[in-house]
Amino acid sequence: MSENTAVRLEEVRLGLGEARFAFDCTFAQGRITAITGPSGSGKSTLLNLVAGFEQPDHGRILIAGNDVTGQHPGARPLSLVFQDNNLFGHLDLFTNVGLGIHPGLRLSKDERQAVSVALKRVGLQGFEKRMPGTLSGGERQRAAFARALVRKRPLLLLDEPFAALDADLREAMAELLLDLHRESGNTILLVTHDRAEVERLADDVVSIDQGRVLDEAGKMPFPHKNMPG
Fold first, then answer.
1. Per the domain annotation, does 219 fall within a domain?
2. Over the chain, what HEC string results?
3. How many domains does the chain have?
């Protein structure tokens, strides 16, 4: 696998009920790739395979050249923000975000500071002791984003992470994502239906339909910032 490849799905096949998925594709290192396609096409399934929440029936998944096919999700070098923000309802926001650094919450002074900084960056300064049940959907999603920030992994998976946010906050969070990408040089796979997000954020665009990645001719469904002309 090329050193410029962050993620490789190698002849991956998966059946979920009557649905069949077949992915053979690569994602470039250090770039933001938008994954687009109609509802039910397999976008989230592809992310679930990379994250380890689904195991392929056939094929391999490689991250940074390492075969992670059999690895537990927690052992993979990635962070994720899915549509379900997956916060623990019985834990306050500081604890929820801190779990992104250490599952046992054995945090150094600098790591505790990093949690507070992450909450501030997503607009939740002063929310450390708030419980998830007292927050709006948008606030919970921002907290999940803060947890991904503190993990500082080379690969970030995002499944429509801004869908629950209003227009102004979507714009602010998109700008934060770009800032963090410039700072870290990480690789981002972003599932989105939003044309504006694709145009603003994506270096590359991959389209999925009926459980398969489209060929090169189908990879640019929208006018794109890196397209000539």
1. no
2. CCCCEEEEEEEEEEEECCEEEEEEEEEECCCEEEEECCCCCCHHHHHHHHHCCCCCCEEEEEECCEECCCCCHHHCCEEEECCCCCCCCCCCHHHHHHCCCCCCCCCCHHHHHHHHHHHHHCCCCCCCCCCHHHCCHHHHHHHHHHHHHHHCCCEEEEECCCCCCCHHHHHHHHHHHHHHHHHHCCEEEEECCCHHHHHHHCCEEEEEECCEECCHHHCCCCCCCCCCC
3. 1
Give tens-digit pLDDT for 99-140.
Answer: 888 877 788 899 999 999 999 988 899 999 999 999 887 888
- Residue 89 covered by a domain: yes
Question: Which H helix or E strand runs over 113?
Answer: helix 109-121
Domain of residue 144 covers: 85-152
Predicted TM-score (pTM) of the model is 0.85
Residue 13 in any domain: the answer is no
Cα separations in angstroms, 204 against 36, 134, 152: 11, 38, 22
140 within a domain of the structure (yes/no): yes
pLDDT at position 223: 38
Give residue-wise pLDDT tens across range 12-56: 999 999 999 999 999 999 999 999 999 999 999 999 999 999 999
Rounded CA-CA distance 167/103 in Å is 33
State the pLDDT at residue 90. Answer: 92
pLDDT of 157 > 50? The answer is yes
Asked if 144 contacts 93 with a C-beta cutoff of 8 angstroms, the reply is no
Counting runs of H as helices and runs of E as strands, what totals does the chain give?
6, 10
